[in-house]
Amino acid sequence: MKYICFYFQIHQPFRFRNYSFFDIGKDHYYYNDYLNESVLQKVVQKSYLPTNTLMLKLIKEHGSKFKISFSISGSALDQFELYAPEVIESFKQLAQTGNVEFLAETSAHSLASQIDFSIFKKQIQQHALRIEQLFGVKPKIFRNTELIYSDQIGAEIYKMGFKGMLTEGAKHILGWKSPNYLYYNAMQPKMKLLLKNYKLSDDIAFRFSNKNWDQYPLTAEKFAFWLTELNPKEEVVNLFLDYETFGEHQWADSGIFNFLESLPRAVIKNTPFTFETPSAIIKKLQPVAVINVPHAISWADEERDLTAWLGNCMQNEAFRKLYGLSPKIDQINDPKLLQDWEYLQASDHFYYMSTKWFTDGEVHAYFNPYKDPYEAFINYMNVLTDFAGRVNSFVPDTSENKEINRLNGMLIEKITEIERLKEQLKRMKKKVS
């Protein structure tokens, strides 16, 4: 049997208002409530609710042959509870079918895996518990923020009890290998890995409505035919998409909902594939080989690395100062402060600061509410400065705290310098080749 793993990411950050230097120390509310609610309501009506309704219809129509999986960020769940509780109810309806799997991720949709495993693990536990409380299922598979993965991350996730993990099928990692198999972690062979087929995923997510694409228009029958042309030995095709693909990134008048409605029927009727959840796939298939990922990869850009979030001085400065506060955060139990700490960690804030304008510039600009990355950096640092002042008022500096912060700062600086040198070495190797 061959499988399609249909996985969807759902995330909405809490966007900051225009927070000026003169607000620091005076106004501790950082969020653009109007923008957050209006964006969410638009996506709810155009994407989340109609797509959930269609998914429920498809499950009823195809039964056990159509299964899907979701990863919903903590901030998205918070916004649903604030602005659109009917969305959570619609996901509960999907959960009750037994055909839907909910994955774990970091509660803050953070980049904590790149700096502090203790924060990283705490956020995963927090998110997994919330998913279980909301939908009645305990997550068995992990999906890190932005599909970030490395050998070390995979091994640490296995220690937490997860048996499988999703990540990108990056060319520079796979080499001649195909993403259409199950793989395993280099440090922990029992950790199974599902790798995104980014070509087929992006055909739906990015190219579907592009009239200049040589395969336009994409139909369910054409997509099913592509599946039959794959190597007969390949066992699983992992289609990992943002859920906003349906109705928001690809508008309804593009035909995306008709495509989605027709796809399961075309696949089940015309191919040897059936749709299955990640946890079932890792039980039914045997991994064929190890994947060596010594340095972190992600879904983003041509490089499939982390430079979309931590690729320039602004991003690294903001990242270093944010996590420099973590020793004090551990001593705080104020709910409002801890909530702000969560929302400050969202990867989106660092993505907004990206200066990668060339090949990938349109993608970065599409998701960016700021006019340029410098404005994003200044606004974030103003918020962070005020937040740091509040943290320091809760946990005043003592000689012991100062030493902890000094050592933590040294550690972060070393990590940043190592990453900078790695990038410099990579560029030098490219020039030599």
Describe this structure in words.
With 433 residues, this protein is of the alpha/beta class. The chain has two domains: 2-291, 7-stranded beta/alpha barrel; 310-432, no CATH class. It has 18 helices and ten strands. Helix 12 packs antiparallel against helix 18.
Mean pLDDT: 93
Given as residue ranges, the uncertain stretches (5+ residues, pLDDT < 50) are none
| Total strands | 10
Oligomer: single chain
The profile of the biggest β sheet is: 5 strands, parallel
What is the count of distinct domains? 2
Q: What is the CA-based Rg, rounded?
A: 22 Å
What proportion strand? 5-15%
**3D shape:** globular
CATH fold naming of the largest domain: 7-stranded beta/alpha barrel
Q: What is the structural class?
A: alpha/beta
Known CATH architecture of the largest domain: Alpha-Beta Barrel
Helicity, as a percent range: 40-55%
CATH class of the largest domain: Alpha Beta
* Count of alpha/pi helices: 18
H/E order of the elements?
EHEHHEHEHEHEEHHEHEHEHHHHHHHH
Distance between the termini: 43 Å
